[in-house]
Amino acid sequence: MQYFYYTEQSLLCLLTPLLIPGLSLLLSTLPHHLLAVCLTSAIPLMALSKVIQIKCNFQNGHTGQLSFVTSLMNFLGTVARLFTVLQEVDDTLILVNVGCVATLNTVILVQFILYWNVEVEESKEKEQ
């Protein structure tokens, strides 16, 4: 909502509290097979965003301004969610989704460990 407030889109700022519950209500009435399609389509999008970050870290040789604490909390949250899914849910689609997220968050955390003491080079423009 702050985005809409500061970009002077006040109508969207006012409608957001109504749109979110409405969208939740709509999604709760969808048939199970359609929800499965939505969950399946989210897996490549999530994976792509994490893979782009992993590739960027690898190419740069450092994690840049990526927050270690945030990445650690993401990792711990997905590990907890993975154990919960393994214990409580009998849906392989959810397990695959959470497993992919946990694996990619693990890779990002390993990159932090590998690149912990790497000095970030100044940009070439500042040297000239």
Unreliably modeled segments = none
Count of helical segments? 6
Class by alpha and beta content:
mainly alpha
Beta percentage is: under 5%
Instruction: Please outline the major beta sheet.
Output: none
Mean pLDDT: 84
| End-to-end separation | 42 Å
Count of individual beta strands:
0
The helix-strand sequence is: HHHHHH
Helix content: over 70%
Shape: flat
Radius of gyration: 19 Å
Give descriptors for this structure.
128 residues; mainly alpha; 6 helices; 0% strand
Summarize the SSE layout with pairings.
Elements: H1 2-6, H2 10-28, H3 32-60, H4 68-88, H5 92-114, H6 124-127
Commentary on this structure:
This protein is mainly α. It is 79% helix and 0% strand. The protein is built from six helices and no strands. It has helices at 2-6, 10-28, 32-60, 68-88, 92-114, 124-127.
